[in-house]
Amino acid sequence: xxxxxxxxxxxxxxxxxxxxxxxLHLPITEAxxxxxxxxxxxxxxxxxxxxxxxxxxxxxxxxxxxxxxxxCLLNCLQVPLWRxxxxxxxxxxxxxxxxxxxxxxxxFDFMLNYVGADIASGPVWMEYISFLKSxxxxxxQEETQRMIAVRKAYQxxxxxxxxxxxxxxxxxxxxxxxxxxxxxxxxxxxxQPKFNSARAVYRERKxxxxxxxxxxxxxxxxxxxxxxxxxxxxxxxxxxEKGNPQRIDASSSNKRTVLTYxxxxxxxxxxPDIWYDYATWHAKSGSVDSAIKVYQxxxxxxxxxxxxxxxxxxxxxxxxxxxxxxxIYESLLGDGVNxxxxxxxxxxxxxxxxxxxxxxxxxxxxxxKSPNCTYHVYVAYAMMAFCLDKDPKIAHNIFEAGLKxxxxxxxxxxxxxxxxxxxxxxxxxxxxxxxxxxxxPPEESVEVWKRFAQFEQTYGDLATMLKVEQRRKEALSRTSxxxxxxxxNSLQDVISRYSFMDLWPCSPKDLDHLxxxxxxxxxxxxxxxxxxxxxxxxxVGEEKGTSGLTxxxxxxxxxxxxxxxxxxxxxxxxxxxxxxxxxxTAVTSSTISSYDGILKGAPPALVAFIASVPNVEGPxxxxxxVLSICLxxxxxxxxxxxxxxSVTQVSAAAAPSISEPSGTNRSRPVPSGxxxxxxxxxxxxxxxxxQDDDETASVQSVPLxxxxxxxxxxxxxxxxxxxxxxxxxxGSAFSGEHSGSTS
Length: 743
What we know:
- The protein contains 35 helices and four strands.
- It is extended and about 110 Å long.
- Among the domains are: 215-305, Serine Threonine Protein Phosphatase 5, Tetratricopeptide repeat (Alpha Horseshoe); 407-479; 489-516, no CATH class.
- It has a two-stranded antiparallel ribbon.
- It is mostly helical.
- Strand 1 and strand 2 form a beta hairpin.
- The longest helix has 29 residues, at 181-209.
- It has helices spanning 2-7, 13-23, 28-41, 46-58, 62-72, 79-93, 97-115, 122-134, 140-157, 165-179, 181-209, 225-242, 250-267, 272-284, 288-301, 306-318, 322-333, 341-354, 357-367, 375-389, 392-406, 410-422, 426-439, 446-459, 462-477, 483-487, 491-498, 508-525, 535-547, 552-555, 589-599, 604-612, 623-632, 648-658, 708-718; strands at 684-686, 692-694, 722-729, 735-742.
- It holds the Pfam family Suf.
- This is Suppressor of forked domain-containing protein.
- GO terms for molecular function: mRNA binding.
- It is found in: Nucleus.
- Keywords: Nucleus, Repeat, TPR repeat.
């Protein structure tokens, strides 16, 4: 079984759960190695510790049980594990009389000091109070002391926001009333507001607690959604506890925050930000020693975390503990063979801050020939010497010494050029660029060429500026597939020469357009010869290839083009496809009933609007004509008592036109010369001007748009002009009728 765990991933949660379940059914001699193996990987898994220690208790291995508790209790602040500890203490001390009772009481106090503020600690408080009540009292003084101890326990319990806070309050009321009703009234009135506050905080606290998965194991973060949700849930709970919502004293509030951080680290054990937040909170609270202990624990949990080491060293240095801080830096350096360049740089800076510039210079001279001393170390030390010594010669000598070793590093060349720019040494800058560009391969010299061009824009004249630009193009053209395109001049060159910081000689729109053109030009250069395609298909393919959206050279063999020989022009009289109502088919009751379900729930205004829309054959109706009809429609508004009873009447209005054969000579509505008159119900209404308007007055139609080309096309197709008349009557139902006559 142990071998199977070794073969799986180190943090395989499923395998760990299986092993733990198997260990339950094994004797302790065989289960102990499995538990040790599991706890080496999951040292904060309280459920594994509890399972392990219970197995030892069943076997009556008291010494082994004590040893296990000493290893896990302070790192696993979980109530079930601590209650297991109390059971063990009771078992060990049950036959020791008064001495055993005192040991048990101390164990209860020890437990409540650590987990007494936990939201699940209600049963612990009840068990503690029951234990105090069970203590023998042989004299009145002992009875008084016992009552005082019980009262204090109750008073601590009822102000703690736990799941059992209301039950504890009821028990406290009963206790005080049983002792003295006169004294109970004053004590209960004093603690009633505190209890109310604890109960309110409990309700808020429970919302955050419920978001947390208390069964998860501590594994390194992999970026899963569940991990991020748990991280956010813990962050919210920590922020809640640090805000001291119950407004208790600072000491009690800090204990609750410590408990929350400790419980958080049981599950987010491999998160350096949680360790850092915990230590920082201790330091800000004035407990630097506690912060240092947190860092020491953090480095045991995450020994390879450079971030935590730097933060720990910073804390030690800030409080004046130079030697402890130096030891941390030396641990980052190790034996020097595997030390990173960043560790060397930070140690040089630390030595400069604490021991002076000479100590840092000595260290630099010792490690400058080390294989892991990169150009970054030279740059860092040269700039430090330049800023502190105020003498550019030392920094210049360091850069020159590094140039012999790092001439092939573009980053070093650029840093050296920046240093010379600070000195305003344009002659040496040009010499540096020329030396570097002669030794660097073209593919690594892009940034150096760019900086050289920028330098000439600042220090050179127009001739030198254009010359460097041309040399840059020639050099970089060797690295591209199409050197001719790279050598071409473009507006991009002008933009690069005449822009400054975030100021541009053109609009953002022009920048986007030029960037698009540059991209298109690069794609054009890699385009192969287009395949020969017939007529419009070839034109489309050519247009796509020009736009850079598709590459026909690679895809022409895979593209299936439509057979345009099978294409036919749409004719209204042709047989429609499946699912389309054929032109010339009469609208029957079954057809209309299919629309009933759709329009049954529609408002009356929508039904009226649909009825007023003319039936037009063909795939694309005349938009102008349809809009003109809609504008002239006097659409009904929803009024009580005037509901549309059936959609049959609506569909009937369109039935004559739908049933019309496509090949008949019956007239169809066209824009020319048509007018629509709409009759309203008789009666009078007041106009906006306060005068009575006759409801029977006809509404003159708005002139239809006259598109001459469109009218001629329709006349040619339909054989003449038509007219349309329509009437609309309002009442309990809606009806419409279209009639047409051949002009």
